[in-house]
Design brief:
- The structure is a homotetramer.
- The first copy, chain A, contains 8 helices and 18 strands.
- Chain A is an alpha+beta fold.
- The first copy, chain A, has a single domain, classed as Chorismate synthase AroC (Chorismate synthase, AroC fold, 4-Layer Sandwich), CATH 3.60.150.10.
- In chain A, the strands form 6 sheets. In chain A, strands 1-2-3-7-4 form a 5-stranded antiparallel β-sheet, with helices on one face. In chain A, strands 9-8-10-16-11 form a 5-stranded antiparallel β-sheet. A two-stranded antiparallel ribbon of chain A has the order 5-6.
- In chain A, a hairpin with a 2-residue loop joins strand 5 and strand 6.
- In chain A, helix 6 packs across helix 8.
- The longest helix of chain A is centred in the C-terminal third of the chain and has 24 residues.
- The relative contact order of chain A is 0.18.
- Chains in contact: A-B, A-C, A-D, B-C, B-D, C-D.
- Chains A and D meet through strand 2, strand 3, strand 4, strand 6 and strand 7 of A and strand 2, strand 3, strand 4, strand 6 and strand 7 of D.
Chain lengths: 364, 364, 364, 364
């Protein structure tokens, strides 16, 4: 189904970096969900490049909702958000169009689209497309919040510098929500930003690990085969450019542990079943257990670097050199937080609508 | 779509551990694919518990193909494989049915199915179901092999013990194919098995990392949104019980690296575009670049351990203790290799059939 | 998705006429639905050839449910029903395998499957496959009935002979339920059967119109685009062999009418909104309005006739003659009633599960 | 998937009659398809109200393609077409918002969307939405034409007045293509238009039968279960407002015929297999046989009529009267031709892309 994801609640994305507009169609929304432009703007602001750790490009995202909202609330029919591309750079992409940027999709896009792809600024592969996704996700996040479900994320690791773990989750989520560089430990945040600036000065870039959490999802949601909660989240998240790994709960460290060290004991607490630990990230057998859903994403260093690299010219089919000019992000991990949250909101909203019906998200 | 996965080539799974049969329906196969029972039996043998590092249970998998094959070849209509459950243990599951085994789906299944689930031996959540998946995958793997595409895997890490990396990939795949404990470095294999036996003696279990490789997939397959190759593989693989993480290429280690360290330079080789390194695991922008697809799975320690654990009785809603009796695998990482390969074959076959049409897999 | 249909509640069909077994996998069922073998047997009996108006073949359908049912109730995991093919005729199909029977799928199957299809007795195209569908549908019909939803059908027309319209719907449904030749007007039934016997004596066959009704579906179910109730019903019903037309409410006769003659006035009745007439068949804008869903299917005459016909041998690629021997149904319209009801049950159950959640069908 | 239809080639629709814009996203297009605005404009013109037999409203459809086209050709990524709603009438919809117009979706929409739907001018249920569909379909029709596949339609019947059958199909298609009132027999066309004007003068409306034909589709496309060609076409076509019936080939008249009268003999012609007649509408067993695909749609009379009707006020829950004011179409059958052709193009393009791969439509 390509550029559409979801079963009961589904998102369709379109647009290219240097086309006229990008946009998203959000379908299957319950009717009656309040759509507040301020919440959308706040999410877009979080994704937007800010400060020296991001690109100097100043993207404007003057979004318009052209369908699916009436009198400030969702109608239940498809909601389309458009974001014009206003700040397109006019430089000549012809000179470099056949030079495959290492780590980018230039070569694979050419193999798939036979040269017809819009090669300017990454085209449909550009991170620009995620602005529409973030706008759509903001609507879902607000609706989920009304049902007691919150989604948040922080940069857990960056070039060896670690943020602290979640402790008081609700308070941590409150703190992270407005941060353009979402890190819980201020000292770690400072070191991370220094590392990014150093990489930038070296004409290089850095990757990192984003940790996401979802609280308030009831137990019993998801499927054993093939739509486990892990399956659906990973499917959607891996389509975000730059994500190269995902792990739930203890994740890869489980390879070093014993069963007794990673099983989560069940316990009664205030008449409710909980787990004493959360090494399985809130999911057993593909199904939520009522604990917070916890996962981490490996986000690769921005592939666009000013350092000289070796590559091929896939038109001439010969070796070539490349040094990527322009204003690029030396790191996108912190900006990816807004995108990961939007994608997570889509998956969770869809799972709940499938489980409890299409009206569930509307609330009381 | 729950127990069905795939678009052009799709698999449906059914059955419970202690029901009459388990089975799989494989749909969308090209007509004319040779179906050799020996290849299916070999794959099932690889999944079957063997030696002291696995359960002492001796599963028989006397599979029968009851549709979709005529004169030894696929017809193009749905192929159904049935595997009767012959060696069901008759012990009383009633006593423990409300005792949530830590790390298992007992509690979450009860929340989802309201007590109607078949709780004997894990029911539909049992690893037993993967036998049908492996049988179906063996047919796909043979067909892919005819088209020059190979899939293999090895235990990359187990309790701190590392296998070597792939070097001569084709030779490595030849060696791994028949191994019940697929490890490239014989010394590492021995240490891993010792570690498993030690854990077993301690009434405990071990997890590990499985590394998979796919060679021969042409460039240009996959989608930017939302069906990236990573997306589809992770979706299908996370539905395999025990998988808690997946990473492609350099994966999580990208968090510690610079862009210049993880970008793969493109180079010409024998008139063909290749990448000098393969840190992106054969995928750029969600689309294959013609290099081997490489990924690793975090497989958790078997949750069934004989050690006493704390839990709840979710019928009485009170705390309880549990020590899981019976013949359990002290480690399933090596047995998961056959399952991961089968799932990978499904995803790759589906991607290729979507890209090149439903007859593609039939070959010349 | 080929041999699987449905979103929340989905059915997968497999098998060939002369293979070992046919079967169906029913997925997405709510847990806790009572599965009564007598109800399944009754539905299969209705589909089975009975009396002189059907084939003299005596099919046995000794079905077995091998998964998804535990202690007499659905578990919520996939339910697989198997029906062995016990009464396979052993005659030689080789002689006629390349002779395209007019009105059958022999030629088109060969174009699609390149000669690898199982050509014996129609293979996967055989009406035999519908036995599995009817068995699965019977489970759904029982569950729907518990929720106040009933499905029934009658032969509305056959060779110019008309049955009366539904009048007291509930009483009519009671009468039709057990009838092997479901016609409301006994005199019409007799004439229809005489017409069939006459056609049979002429080595010919007859078609007819099947009228189906669904009562008790709440208003507000279905989608404007693209999953209207008409869309989903027609999609599923057109895959039943022999169906060549479908119309809802007044249907094709609307071409002869004025708006004022086919609009259904809304009226209040006992505090509830109803329509004074039901010319739109219970559906406005693709969405149920709470009135009975009413539609008619055009079922073509059985294409297997003993009369000599002209055709081609698609192996030799030359003209040929054919007279189809064997025990064939001179009419399948009455037997198609059980199939149409099963398909309708699948669509309605799926729509309701999508609308109200996966537990909806379980009832109180 | 609600407002998205298609597997390999998929269409998503959004918008409301009185919202800011309507639009369509066309995904899965082969790269390199020429996109000519003139062809889109011609299709929109055909759908647009023209002459006294249509509404006096003068819709403008100043479409813009904002993604997926680069240098005049499809890129292979989603193509989004936007059409602003420029000619919105500003009259007050509040007074009538709870008055259920007979034959319309006002009441069912309210049941589904709980009052949050955009009730102005039919909202998302308005025929206005089909403008975006027609624009998208025009692109597909041009691409199909390049592959030798043509789609056309005519008003076969209207209030008892019949058009002639297709004879020289290619010549008939040439004639029909530009006609705003597509009828092959000029005398019939005149009578039909007179009948419409008479109905209009009576404050009433008329329905009719639209007959569609598709030539050039190769044999072997479609599925036995559940994606027969009839299934997919009917699914998509029934979501068009006003369609209440569909029949293929001889269709409902098969109920009056014998097998020998409706079977199509196969014959050799110029070394190719054809059928001597086409009573099955080009489809056997759900799969194309290479003959023209032929079907008819029952289109109901426009429900908006000026005559007084009885209805309910579903807010007050009481009986009421209604006479629908405004400029309404006295008949939409002729305008529906452009819509039916667009929907047909989508289904055929999708089927071919699934069968032969995503590049198939690109052509040489």
């Amino acid at each position: 189904m390509k550029n559409t994801f979801g079963t009961s609640v589904a998102l369709t994305l379109f647009g290219e970096s240097h086309g006229e507009m990008i946009g998203a169609v959000l379908d299957g929304l319950a009717p009656g969900i309040a759509v507040e432009e301020a919440a959308i703007e706040a999410a877009l602001q979080k994704r937007r490049p800010q400060g020296a750790v991001s690109t100097a490009r100043r993207e404007q995202d003057p979004f318009r909702i052209v369908s699916g909202v009436f009198n400030g609330k969702t109608t239940g029919t498809p909601l389309c958000i458009l974001i014009p591309n206003e700040n397109k750079k006019s430089r000549d992409y012809e000179a470099t169009r056949f030079l495959a940027r290492p780590g980018h999709a230039d070569y694979t896009a050419n193999e798939k689209y036979h040269g017809f792809q819009d090669y300017r600024g990454g085209g449909h592969f550009s991170g620009r497309i995620t602005a529409a996704l973030v706008a759509a996700g903001a609507i879902l996040q607000s609706a989920l919040r009304e049902k007691g479900i919150r989604i948040g994320s922080h940069v857990k690791a960056l070039h060896g510098i670690l943020d602290r773990e979640f402790s008081d989750i609700e308070a941590d989520l409150d703190r992270l929500a407005p941060m353009p560089f979402p890190v819980l430990d201020a000292a770690a945040a400072e070191k991370m930003q220094e590392a990014i600036l150093t990489a930038k000065a070296e004409c290089d870039s850095l990757g990192g690990i984003l940790e996401c959490i979802v609280t308030g999802v009831p137990a019993g949601v998801g499927e054993p085969w093939f739509d486990s909660v892990e399956s659906l989240l990973s499917h959607a998240l891996f389509s975000v450019g730059g994500v190269k790994g995902i792990e739930f709960g203890t994740g890869f460290d489980m390879a070093n542990r014993k069963g007794s060290e990673v099983n989560d004991d069940f316990r009664m607490e205030n008449g409710k079943v909980i787990t004493a630990t959360n090494r399985n990230g809130g999911i057993n057998g593909g199904i939520t257990n009522g604990m917070p859903i916890l996962f981490r994403l490996a986000v690769k260093p921005t592939p666009s670097i000013a350092k000289q690299q070796q590559t091929v010219d896939f038109s001439a089919m010969e070796n070539a050199d490349i040094a990527i000019e322009g204003r690029h992000d030396p790191c996108i991990v912190h900006r990816a937080a807004a995108v990961a949250e939007a994608v997570t909101a889509l998956v969770i909203a869809d799972l709940l609508a499938q489980r409890f019906g299409t009206d569930w998200l509307k609330g009381a």
